[in-house]
Amino acid sequence: MATNTTSKPSLSAHDGTVGLTTSDVIPIAARGKEITGLEIFKETADDTAIPISRVDVLMSQMHTDVPSGGTDMNYGATDSQRLRLWNPTSSTSKAPIIVFVHGGSWRVGTYLDSVGSIKVSHLTKLGYAFATVNYTLFPAVSVAEQVQEVADAVGYLVRKATSLNIDPNRVILMGHSSGAHVVTLLGTDTRYLELAGVSIDTIQGVIALDGSNYNAPAEILDSPGSVAENMKYALGNDLEALETMSPTCNARAPNARVFLLLHIQRQGDIRQAVEFVNVLRAAGSEAALHVFEGEGFEGHVQMLLRLGDPGYPATGVLEGWLRVNAPVKQSP
């Protein structure tokens, strides 16, 4: 893929906008009540409002909240091409597997320090296998090559399904931030999975956690600032290339059967999420969007770290969606 890059932007802690003052945001973002109706489109603060000291605290929390246990596996030939798998802690037969892709503007983060431990323990207790995928970071490879690496990891898990006691026909893709961009692209552009030897029908569903760049060309107007600059640095300035890397522009059948988008309040990305949901529905997929309290980087990190906590409202939405779309079959 050709990538015409701009000068390298300074790396912000988030590939999205930053929210309100510390005193206003912290309790609201951590509470995370669901927002409905036209309130999801409310104007949000710019990316200068959060103190850098608070950004540093959030980054530290994210990087130290590493899930324990699990088994490392190499799905490819390079050191970066590895994943970690956790088996369900409840008794299940051929468990559905949730495959998680970390964020970081495609260029920072790892499969352990950008995941959030509570979601791993919570979902494995519910009977799901959970895998988190490491991949080579940009600019060592292109974003398209990253997406292919994640597809290859899915192919590895599907081929090993019998020995791993997972259901090869019930794979759920989950990603946060730029990882949400990766999994929604895998759920709409079948070329990556096909190269990995995987049918789109294998993907039971796709879960995007506070994603962006569903419509990459529109990001320049929707989210000017760090979001757009990070996108242009990684994906380039060429319109055709941006469309090729946009889940919304690829959302023609066949797609994954069902999508769940969980977002905090970021004005431009909410607009894109609504557009993406409608395009998916028009193409025959089921798609749902839920928006929760918490603007900018504060809410962005709270969703990553708190999803899986029964007291965080998005957890209940996720559980309900999984019960309907990928129910766990208990062993006799």
UniProtKB/TrEMBL annotation:
Spell out the Pfam families in the cross-references.
BD-FAE (PF20434)
Please give the Gene Ontology molecular function terms for this protein: hydrolase activity
Record's keyword annotation contains Cell cycle: no
Q: Where is the BD-FAE-like domain?
A: 85-191
Under the heading InterPro entries, the entry gives: AB_hydrolase_fold (IPR029058), BD-FAE-like_dom (IPR049492), GDXG_lipolytic_enzyme (IPR050300)
**Name the UniProt record assigns to this protein:** BD-FAE-like domain-containing protein
Q: Which UniProt keywords apply?
A: Hydrolase
- Give TM regions: none
